[in-house]
Every structure is written in C-alpha cells, then in structure tokens.
Design goal:
CATH architecture of the largest domain: Orthogonal Bundle
Low-confidence stretches: none
Shape: elongated
CATH class of the largest domain: Mainly Alpha
Helix content: 40-55%
Number of domains: 5
CATH superfamily of the largest domain: Isoleucyl-tRNA Synthetase, Domain 1
Bound molecules: zinc ion
C-alpha cells in the first residue's frame, strides 16, 4: 500500500484536498504515515466474490474478470475463491465506478473530480483515504477538493445511536411531531463543526419555535397585502426616503448576507444558522418589525407605498433565501405566500443574495454611525421599559418621555427618529429637551438620558435606593478598569486597541456616573 499512500498523503499535505474541520488532517496523516498492507478478503456471504480461479487439475491460480476458458494444463474446470472483497474495496472505487468507469462517459467527465464529500469522521481512513488513493491511482487525479466531517449524533446520555441499543428516534415520528424544517434546523443549530452532539427530540422545539416566529412575521406583513412590486432591490431609494430604523436594518442585513455567505464557504453550517437565528429574532423581530408597526397600521399614505414597506420586503426576501438551505419547506411556502414568486416557480431557483456595496449603502445612509446610534437608542428604550417594570406601569399605558441627548449628533438622530421612537416607547408625548421639573424615572444610555415624569405615582425612597445601587456599580466598574490599567502586565501585553477601548470605557462610565449623581441630587432634595 505504501506506493499508493504516498501521493494520497501529499494531496492533503499540499492543500489540494482540504478537510473541515482541519484537525481531521492529523488522523489522516497518522494512518497514511503508518500504512499497512490491506487484507482484502472477507469470509462473508454478501459481497463481490474475489475473481481468483484455481485450476482443479494443476492448482494454477488465475486472476481475471471472468473465469478462464482453459488452463495451460488443458483442463477447463476451475474453483473460484469462496471469499468476498472487503466492503471498502468496492467503496474506494465509488467516485468513478458509479459513472461506468473505465468507460469515458460524459458523467465521468462532468463529475470526476467533484467538489465536496460529506461523511463521518469515523471513516477517515476506511473510506476517505482509500478513495483518494484509488482516485490518484486509477484516474490520475484527486476525487474531490473538500471533505466535510459531520458531527456524530449521540443520545442524551452520550451513547452513540445504534440498532442494538435501539436508542435512535424514528425521524418520521420527529417530523410528524415538530416538522421536517424544525428537525433539520435544530440538528444544524446544535452541531458545531467536528464535535459530537447529544440529541433528544425535545431539542426540536427550538426549530419549531423558530419556524413559528418566521411564519408570524409573514402573517404580520400580509395584513398590508402582498409584496410591493419593487421588492427585489432598493434601487432609487435615497437616505431622505428612509427612517433611521430602515437604514439600521439594511446595514444589519448586509452584514448577515456577508457573514452567512462566508460561513457556508468555510463549511460553518452551525455558525450560519446561529447568525440567521439571531438576526431574525433579536434584530428584525424585536426591533425592526416593532418599529414598522406604527407605519403599517396607519392608513396607506397618499404618495404611494411607504419606503419602509419596500425595505421590509427586501429584507424578508433576502432572509428567506439565506434560510432556504436550512429550512427548505417553510422558506419556499412563505416565498410564495407573500408573492415573491409565482405558483409555478420556486425559491430554489432564486439567486443567492449579494450584499450591497459601500456606495449603495452610503446613498441609503445605511453606514457610518447609524448602527451604533440605533443600538444606543435600543438600549435607551430597554431602559425606559425597565422604568415601566420598576414602577409597575403597564406597557399599554402611554407615558410621557423627555430625552436629553448626549451629543449634538445624538440630538439630530433622535429628532429624525421621532415617530418610531414614540411608537416603540408607547409615549403619549415625546420631547427632546432638558430634564423636566419634579420627580422622574431616569433611563441612561450612550445616546442620552430619558426622563419619565412620575408625578403622583412614585416611591421616592425606592428610587433613590435604585440610583445608589447604579452609582455603586459604576464606581466598581471604573475601579476595576483603573486597576487593570494600573497593571503593567496588562498595559504592556494587551493590544493597543484593547487598552484604548478600556480608557474610553472609563470616560463613558464617568459620564454616566455624573448623570446618576445628578439624579440622586434631584431626588435627595
Ligand atoms: Zn491447470
């Protein structure tokens, strides 16, 4: 086997064949550098019988595709070897024998070599290494360029699933209970590259809940009718047409297109589904969809389709295409329901989404500080929601909110975002300005401070105690970072940007502390 192993080892060592995860190469090398000759016969009933024929008269051995007609000794009575070939002896020919090799068929030409082989890490040597050896020997070329090793699925006690343990669920039962997409998505979600996973049916709830979430997004959208005609792109829209939330979601969607495409190119299926999950759940649904409610629920504006509707459709169409490899059924169904394709077409035939380039993003205003400003705004909204929770003010009860912006840039941003902000805060009145008179609930984020007047419903002592706690936390944080920066080991060894970031953190926290103390002073009086 050594002459066969040598070129096969070289093909992986020089990168003509790549393994995912890369550390599987170590196992491969171990086998190929310690190659042993291969006993190819097995004493089994099923299998390819070994084509070796012994002459009944003189005992001469003939190896041929079919039994020879006559032996040199003149007889024509032979006995074929009773053994069969080792399973892997036929399997190692698989990449070309299935295309009628040694005939030079069109299929062989088209599919040899192929691109990706997907298999289990437990047969790196038995199958993968041998296909590489056979390919190089008989075809003179590698059989594939990438090998992806899947996780091995174990039961929730860590045991390999097997027929004898009877511990593997029937996929049909799981599909009936949770859905085919839910099963497929969940398995991908819980399987990091190269690691075994522990599976139980209950884990499929994650995929089912995700499918429900996407289904409900489309239900919500369909309240405003079918897809707008120009959902395919954002051509012709400018920054002036868009709200900050539109610009923010365009920037985030663009990021997710790039990341998921990159994940797939790197065989990071698990990373890809996590990125899609986080995008639709924590960004699109939690914030963008909520921000669109006030617009979608309003009467259709006289000057035609609101830009937000088009941005919404563009995002949804891109997202469904990115999701399609992982949830093929629901993505195709929803693509039809909303009207992105006609009944006789399919999302399967749609192009893979491409990110917008820098120039397009700039024209739409989906660049620069829009992401950090938006995220600071969301932080502020969360903080105001906490005020509601702290004072047990129902989310359905409108409150008045006054926001003091942290910077002139933040002020311009908040002014521009007035309508969405008012809706997300459920604010009866929303003003950008100075702190109002009287006791207030106070929410602080990098974009500014929000005041919720509490006249008539405040427990003064509790409010002061809460601020004292925040003050203590800020002081502790500043103290910790300062101690870290005073440590020469940290300052000398950490990258400069990390040190700079920590210094900036101190500044930000000190500003926050000042604002907290101002509030304490107000309530203390
Ligand atoms: Zn003979």
């Amino acid at each position: 086997m050594a002459p066969l192993a040598e070129p096969a080892l070289a093909a992986v060592n020089d990168g003509r064949i790549r393994f995912h995860p890369e550390r599987s190469v170590k196992t491969y090398r171990h086998w190929m550098e310690n190659i042993k000759d291969w006993c190819i016969s097995r004493q089994l009933w099923w299998g390819h019988r070994i084509p070796a024929y012994t002459c009944n008269q003189c005992g001469k051995l003939h190896v041929a595709i079919s039994a020879p007609e006559k032996c040199d000794c003149g007889t024509s009575v032979f006995t074929q070897d009773p053994d069969v070939l080792d399973t892997w002896f036929s399997s190692w020919l698989w990449p070309f024998s299935v295309f009628s090799w040694p005939e030079e068929t069109a299929e062989l030409k088209r599919f040899y070599p192929t691109q990706s082989l997907v298999t289990g890490p437990d047969i790196i040597f038995f199958w993968v290494a041998r296909m590489i050896m056979a390919g190089l020997e008989f075809m003179g070329d590698i059989p594939f360029s990438d090998v992806y090793f899947t996780s091995i699925i174990r039961d929730d006690r860590g045991r390999k699933m097997s027929k004898s343990l009877n511990n593997s669920p029937d996929p049909i039962d799981v599909v009936n209970q949770y859905g085919a997409d839910a099963l497929r998505f969940t398995i991908t979600y819980i399987a990091p590259v190269g690691q075994d996973i522990r599976y139980s049916n209950e884990k499929c709830e994650l995929g089912r809940n995700f499918a429900n979430k996407i289904w409900n997004v489309v239900r919500f959208r369909l309240n405003r009718g079918q897809a707008v005609p120009d959902w395919q792109n954002l051509d012709g829209l400018t920054a002036a047409d868009l709200r900050p939330d539109d610009q923010w979601i365009i920037a985030r969607l663009n990021r997710v297109i790039k990341i998921v495409t990159d994940n797939l190119e790197q065989f990071g299926f698990n990373d890809a589904v996590k990125n899609l999950y986080d995008f639709i759940w924590s960004e699109f649904c939690d914030w963008y969809l909520e921000s669109c409610k006030s617009i979608f629920n309003a009467e259709k504006s006289a000057d035609g389709t609101p830009a937000a509707l088009r941005v919404f459709d563009y995002c949804l169409s891109v997202f469904l295409r990115l999701l399609h490899p992982f949830m093929p059924f629901i993505s195709d169904e929803l693509y039809h329901q909303i009207g992105f394709v006609s009944e006789d077409d399919s999302i399967m035939l749609a192009d893979w989404p491409k990110p917008l380039d820098e120039e397009q993003l700039e024209a739409l205003g989906a660049c620069g500080d829009i992401v950090s400003l938006s995220e600071a705004k969301f932080e502020l909204i969360r903080a105001v929601r906490n005020i509601r929770a702290n004072y047990q003010i129902s989310t359905s009860r409108p409150i008045n909110v006054i926001i003091t912006p942290a910077t002139p840039e933040a002020e311009a941003f908040l002014q521009r975002d007035h309508a969405a902000l008012q809706s997300l805060l459920n604010a009866g009145e929303l003003h950008v300005g100075e702190k109002p008179e009287g006791p207030c609930g106070v929410a602080v984020s990098n974009i500014g401070t929000a005041y919720v007047p509490l006249a008539g419903m405040i427990d003064l002592e509790a409010e002061v105690a809460r601020l004292r706690k925040q003050e203590k936390e800020a002081l502790q944080y500043i103290d910790n970072v300062k101690r870290k920066l005073a440590n020469p080991n940290f300052v000398e060894r950490a990258p400069q940007e990390v040190v700079d970031r920590e210094r900036a953190n101190i500044c930000e926290s000190e500003e926050k502390l000042t604002r907290i103390r101002e509030q304490i002073a107000v309530f203390g009086n």
